[in-house]
Specification:
The complex is a heterotrimer. By secondary structure, chain A is an all-alpha fold. In chain A, helix 3 packs across helix 13 and helix 4 packs antiparallel against helix 5. The longest helix of chain A is centred in the C-terminal third of the chain and has 34 residues. Chain B is mainly α. Chain B is built from twelve helices and no strands. Chain C folds into two domains: 220 residues, P-loop containing nucleotide triphosphate hydrolases (Rossmann fold, 3-Layer(aba) Sandwich); 119 residues, OB fold (Dihydrolipoamide Acetyltransferase, E2P), CATH 2.40.50. Chain C is 26% helix and 33% strand. In chain C, strand 11 and strand 12 form a beta hairpin. In chain C, helix 2 runs parallel beside helix 4 and helix 4 runs parallel beside helix 5. The radius of gyration of chain C is 24 Å and the shape is elongated. Classes of the chains: A mainly alpha, B mainly alpha, C alpha+beta. Chains A and C meet through helix 9, helix 10 and helix 13 of A and strand 6, helix 2 and helix 4 of C.
C-alpha cells in the first residue's frame, strides 16, 4: 500500500475521468475526494472526542465556562498533595501489578500452546481464552459474585480460615485482581502469541544441534525472542488495568476506589470537577504514554524478524 | 505443567459465564451456587420487567444505529486512508485509531462536560455520538485490514476496461469487502451493546442501557433475576462471536484488536 | 567392534543406517533404508519432494526416532540420544540464524554451549569467519546480511564446533541462480578443507552432482541407487533413477529379442528396430520403457527417400540446441550450438549407442515415472 500503488490508482482514476466523453461533468481532484471521505470521521472526532478532552483539560487548569478565576495549577497540586488520592493511586498500581503478573503466568503457557504446531485443541483454546475480548464483562461479573461472593463455598472457606469475611473474596482487592485478570488475559496472550508466530522451529532445532540443552534453548533462544511480545503484553495489560472502571467498581467494595472510580465519584457523585478533571488528565497522559511504548516495542519486535529468509 | 496452566486458563476464562448461565436457571432465591432446582421463572420475571425491557430496547437501538453509522464512517475513512497514503493520512489514521488507547472514562467525562455546557439531555443521538468514538477505531481497523487484502490489479483491470472510479468501487471493491464490512458491523454492535465505562457517564434516569442497568443493580442488592438478565446480555455476545467466527474467523478479529 | 560393517575401501562407515523405517501420519515415509557414508565423504541425498529426505535428516539429527532400524555414527548407536548430545552440525533451509545475536555470537553459540574458554572461542570463531570470507562481520546482525552471507554464517556456526557429521538441508535453495554456482563451489571447498563427513539433502540434481562425491537417490522412502554421478547417469539401477536423472526421453517399445550375456535387447518401437541396454532378463513380447538422454541421440540427415523422423522445432538453450523430433516416437535431441542445423520439417534419422539407452520392463517403471508423460505433451 505504498505511493506507487496509490499513484497507480490515481492514474487510473485520472485517465478514466479524463478519458470519459462529456458525460463526466465535475472533475474532482483527489484531495477533495479524500477530504470528503474523511470529513464525517474527523468532524465527529473533533467535536466530541477532542472537544470533550479539551474541555476536561481546560477545566483541570481551572479554565472553562463556569470558571471563577484564571488558569491555575490548584487542581493538580491538590491531586498530588491529597493523601486520599495517593492511597487510591497506590491501590490502583498494586492491583494492576498483580494483575499483570497473573496474566503473565497464565498467558505465557497459553500463548506457547496456541503457537505450537501440534496443539490438538488449539482452536478451542483460542476461542475460550480470547472470548473475554468480546463477551460482556458486566454480564459475567455476577458469575464471580456467585462464585466467591457471600453465600458461596469460597466465602465459607475464607470465613473458616481468615475468620472475618462473610463476603468471601467479593469487595476485596483480590476479587478485583481475579476479575481484571479474566478480562485482560486475552491481551497478554495475543501479544505474546504474535511475537511467537515469528519464532521458527528451525531456530530451536539449530540451537539443539549446536549442543544447547532444552533448558539452554529456552533461556538463550526462546525467551529472548519472546521478550518483545512479553514486554508489549505487560505494558498493554498494565495500561488497561490502571484505567479500568467497571470491574473494580463492582467487585472492589472497599477496594473499588481505583483511579477511574475516583474520577467517576469526584465528577458524578460529588460534583468536584476540579480534582476529578486533573486526575483524568494525568491518567490519560500516563496510559497513553504506556500504550505508545507498547506499540513501539511491538514495532521493534516486528522489525527484528523482518529480514528473516522466507523458505 | 504448562498444559495444566493452559487448562486452568481455559476454565478460568469460561467460568464466570458458565456460572451465570447455570445460575439463571436456579430456583433458589439466593445468589449462591450451585443451584438446587431448575426453572425458567427468572427469565419470565426479567422479560416482564418494564425497566428491563425499555433498557433492552434502548440498548438494541443504540447498538444498531451505532454499528451502522460507525461502519459507514469507518468505511469512508478506510478507503481514503488506504488509497491515498500520504504522511497526512497516516497521521489521520493514527488519530482515528487513538480512542483505543485512551481510557473510556476520560472520553466519557469529556462528552459529559459537553452535555453540561450545551445543556444536552441523554437521548439516542447523544449516546450514539459517544459510542461512535469508541467503535469507529475497531471498525476502521477491521476495514483497513479487509482493504489491504484486496488485489489492486482487479481494480486497475476494471478501470482499463472503462469503469469510472465510483463504479469500480461499487462493483469491484465493495463486493470483495462484504465479509469485512459484516465483521465491522457485528463488532461495532457488540462493543456498543456491552459498553459500560463510557456509557455510565452519559446515561440519565429513563435512558439507560442493559449493562448500566446491571451495573446499578450490582451496586445495590440484586435480586436473583439478575442472572437471567445477565444471560440475555451475554446472548448478544455469544451470537456475535459465532457470527464473527463464521464471517472472518474469530482469531482474525482478535488479532486485529491488538493494540 | 560388534556390528560394524565395512565400506568398499575397507574402513568402517562413519555414518550407518540399517533397516530404518518410519511412518508418519499413516504414511510410510522411510521404508527399510540402508545407508553407509565413509569418513570425509560428501554424500548427496537426492529425491523429489515427499521422498523422505527431510525425514531422514531429522532422524539423523535426532529430532525424530526411527520406528525400527539402527542409526550409528562411528559405530556408536545414536538412536535415543538427544539432539544436543549428538555433535552433528546442521544447516537449515532458511539458515535459522539467531536474529537476536550478532554474527560473532551466532557462530560462537555452539562453543558457548560446550563451555569453551573465551579466548579459545574468540580465536576459533575469528578463524572460521576468515575461512568463509566473513572477517569484519562480527558485530553485524542477521537481518543486515544478504542471503549468501547468511548462508556462510550458518555454515561457520555449524562447522566451528568441529562436528563429527554435517547435515545440509537444501543449502542453495534460497539463492538466485548466479549466486548458487559460486556458493556451491565455496561450500565444497570449505567442507573439503575441514574434512568433515557431510550429507547434502536436495531435490536439485545439478546441485547434488556438483557438490557430492556420491549421491543416494531416494524415492517413496526407499533408496533407489547410491553411486557417483557417473554411475547414476551411465548405469541407472531402475526405471525411477533412469527417469529422474537428467531429463531423458521416455519411449515405449516391445521386446523382440534379448541377449543375456551382453544385456542387450532389440526392441520394436512403432515398427522400427533399435538396440538397447537392459539389465533384467525379458522375454520377447515384454513391453519395455526405454530412457535415452537427449545428449545421447545422434541425428543425421535422412537418406534420399525420407527417414522415419521429422524435425518439428528447435530452440536455443544457451547450453546447446534442443530439437524436437517426431516419428515412431517423439524425442528431444541435444546438439551443441554450432552443430549442423536442420530445417523444420526436414526428415532425419536418429540413432544411439545401445549402452546409452536404458530399458526396463514397463510395469516397474510406469508408476515412478508417471510425471514423464506430461513432458511429452507437446506432441
Amino acid at each position: 500500500m505504498s505511493g506507487a500503488a496509490a499513484s497507480g490508482n490515481e492514474a487510473a482514476r485520472a485517465t478514466s475521468a479524463g478519458a470519459r466523453p462529456s458525460g463526466h461533468r465535475v472533475r474532482m481532484t483527489p484531495w477533495l475526494i479524500v477530504f470528503g471521505l474523511l470529513a464525517p470521521a474527523l468532524l465527529l472526532y473533533a467535536t466530541v472526542y477532542l472537544g470533550g478532552m479539551a474541555i476536561i483539560g481546560l477545566a483541570s487548569f481551572g479554565l472553562g465556562p463556569d470558571a471563577e478565576s484564571g488558569a491555575t495549577l490548584a487542581n493538580y497540586r491538590e491531586v498530588f498533595a491529597s493523601a486520599h488520592i495517593q492511597a487510591v493511586v497506590l491501590r490502583t498500581l498494586r492491583v494492576s501489578a498483580i494483575t499483570v503478573i497473573a496474566c503473565l503466568v497464565l498467558g505465557f503457557p497459553v500463548a506457547r500452546y496456541i503457537t505450537s504446531p501440534d496443539a490438538r485443541w488449539r482452536s478451542f483454546v483460542v476461542m475460550a481464552v480470547l472470548s473475554p475480548l468480546m463477551v460482556s464483562a458486566i454480564g459475567r461479573v455476577f458469575g464471580w459474585i456467585a462464585l466467591f461472593g457471600p453465600g458461596s463455598w469460597v466465602a465459607a472457606q475464607t470465613m473458616h480460615f481468615f475468620g472475618t469475611r462473610a463476603t468471601g473474596l467479593l469487595y476485596t482487592e483480590a476479587g478485583v485482581v481475579i476479575g481484571l485478570t479474566n478480562i485482560l488475559l486475552p491481551f497478554m496472550v495475543l501479544s505474546i502469541a504474535a511475537s511467537r508466530a515469528n519464532l521458527d522451529e528451525s531456530l530451536l532445532k539449530a540451537a539443539a544441534s549446536l549442543g544447547a540443552t532444552p533448558s539452554a534453548v529456552f533461556w538463550q533462544v526462546e525467551l529472548p525472542l519472546n521478550l518483545p511480545g512479553i514486554l508489549g503484553g505487560v505494558l498493554i495489560v498494565f495500561s488497561l488495568s490502571i484505567t479500568n472502571f467497571a470491574t473494580a467498581a463492582l467487585l472492589g467494595g472497599s477496594g473499588r476506589d481505583v483511579v477511574a472510580y475516583e474520577i467517576y465519584s469526584n465528577i458524578l457523585t460529588y460534583h468536584q470537577p476540579g480534582t476529578g478533571t486533573a486526575l483524568a488528565i494525568l491518567l490519560l497522559v500516563c496510559s497513553v504514554a504506556i500504550m505508545m511504548l507498547a506499540i513501539w516495542v511491538g514495532r521493534r519486535a516486528d522489525a527484528m524478524q523482518a529480514a528473516r529468509v522466507e523458505t | 505443567m504448562s498444559r495444566v496452566i493452559v487448562l486452568f486458563s481455559v476454565i478460568f476464562a469460561l467460568l464466570p459465564g458458565m456460572i451465570v448461565f447455570l445460575a439463571s436457571f436456579s430456583a433458589g432465591n439466593s445468589l449462591a451456587f450451585p443451584p438446587r432446582e431448575f426453572t425458567l421463572h427468572w427469565y419470565g420475571v426479567i422479560l416482564g420487567d418494564p425497566e428491563f425491557s425499555s433498557a433492552l430496547l434502548m440498548s438494541v437501538m443504540l447498538a444498531g444505529v451505532t454499528s451502522v453509522v460507525a461502519t459507514a464512517i469507518a468505511l469512508l475513512a478506510a478507503l481514503a486512508i488506504s488509497r491515498y497514503r500520504t504522511p497526512t493520512t497516516v497521521l489521520i489514521e493514527a488519530f482515528l485509531l487513538s480512542p483505543m488507547v485512551v481510557p473510556h472514562v476520560v472520553i466519557g467525562i469529556g462528552i459529559l462536560q459537553i452535555y453540561i455546557i450545551y445543556g444536552l439531555r441523554a437521548d439516542l443521538m447523544t449516546l450514539t455520538t459517544g459510542h461512535l468514538i469508541v467503535t469507529i477505531p475497531f471498525a476502521l481497523r477491521l476495514l483497513l485490514a479487509s482493504i489491504a487484502g484486496l488485489d489492486r490489479r482487479v481494480e486497475m483491470a476494471a478501470a482499463s476496461l472503462g469503469a469510472p472510479p465510483f463504479t469500480v468501487f461499487r462493483s469491484v471493491v465493495l463486493p470483495q469487502m462484504k465479509m469485512g464490512i459484516a465483521g465491522a458491523l457485528v463488532a461495532a454492535f457488540i462493543l456498543s451493546f456491552d459498553d459500560v465505562s463510557l456509557t455510565i457517564f452519559l446515561v440519565q434516569p429513563g435512558y439507560t442501557t442493559i449493562p448500566i442497568l446491571l451495573f446499578n443493580q450490582a451496586e445495590n442488592n440484586p435480586g436473583p433475576a439478575i442472572h437471567a438478565a445477565s444471560v440475555i446480555l451475554l446472548l448478544a455476545s455469544w451470537i456475535a462471536i459465532f457470527l464473527i467466527d463464521r464471517l472472518m474467523g474469530f482469531e482474525r478479529l482478535a488479532f486485529a484488536s491488538r493494540k | 567392534m560388534y556390528g560394524v560393517t565395512e565400506t568398499a575401501d575397507g574402513s568402517p562407515p562413519h555414518l550407518e543406517l540399517r533397516g530404518v523405517c518410519k511412518t508418519l501420519g499413516g504414511r510410510t515415509v522411510l521404508d527399510h533404508v540402508d545407508l553407509e557414508v565413509a569418513k570425509g565423504d560428501l554424500l548427496g541425498l537426492l529425491g523429489p519432494s515427499g521422498s523422505g529426505k527431510t525425514t531422514m535428516l531429522n532422524m539423523i539429527g535426532g529430532f525424530l526416532s526411527p520406528d525400527s532400524g539402527t542409526v550409528r555414527i562411528a559405530g556408536q548407536d545414536i538412536v535415543g540420544v538427544q539432539p544436543h548430545r549428538r555433535d552433528i552440525g546442521i544447516t537449515f533451509q532458511g539458515y535459522a540464524l539467531f536474529p537476536h545475536l550478532t554474527v560473532f555470537d551466532n557462530v560462537a553459540f555452539g562453543l558457548k554451549q560446550r563451555g569453551a574458554p573465551k579466548p579459545d572461542t574468540k580465536s576459533r570463531v575469528t578463524e572460521m569467519l576468515a575461512l568463509l570470507g566473513l572477517s569484519g562481520y562480527e558485530t553485524r546482525l542477521p537481518r543486515a546480511l544478504s542471503g549468501g552471507e547468511q548462508q556462510r554464517v550458518a555454515l561457520a556456526r555449524a562447522l566451528v564446533v568441529r562436528p563429527r557429521l554435517m547435515l545440509l538441508d537444501e543449502p542453495l535453495a534460497n539463492l538466485d541462480a548466479a549466486l548458487r554456482h559460486r556458493v556451491r563451489f565455496e561450500i565444497r571447498e570449505v567442507l573439503r578443507r575441514t574434512q568433515v563427513t557431510s550429507i547434502f539433502v536436495t531435490h536439485d540434481q545439478d546441485e547434488a552432482f556438483a557438490l557430492c562425491d556420491r549421491v543416494a537417490v531416494l524415492n517413496q522412502g526407499r533408496i533407489q541407487q547410491i553411486g557417483t554421478p557417473a554411475d547414476l547417469i551411465l548405469e541407472p539401477a531402475n526405471a525411477f533413477v533412469a527417469g529422474f536423472i537428467g531429463s531423458p526421453n521416455m519411449l515405449t517399445g516391445r521386446t523382440m529379442s534379448y541377449d543375456e550375456e551382453s544385456n542387450r535387447a532389440t526392441v520394436d518401437i512403432n515398427g522400427f528396430t533399435y538396440a538397447v541396454n537392459c539389465k533384467t532378463r525379458v522375454a520377447p513380447g515384454t513391453p519395455l520403457t526405454i530412457f535415452v538422454r537427449p545428449e545421447e541421440v545422434t541425428i543425421s540427415p535422412a537418406t534420399s527417400g525420407g527417414g522415419p523422423f521429422q524435425v518439428k522445432d528447435w530452440v536455443y538453450l544457451g547450453s546447446g540446441r534442443e530439437m524436437w523430433v517426431d516419428g515412431p516416437a517423439a524425442l528431444r535431441v541435444r546438439l551443441p550450438n554450432d552443430a549442423q542445423g536442420y530445417e523444420r520439417g526436414e526428415r532425419v534419422t536418429l540413432s544411439w549407442r545401445p549402452e546409452r539407452a536404458h530399458a526396463f520392463p514397463a510395469d516397474a517403471g510406469s508408476r515412478a515415472t508417471a510425471d514423464h508423460d506430461t513432458a511429452q505433451v507437446w506432441r
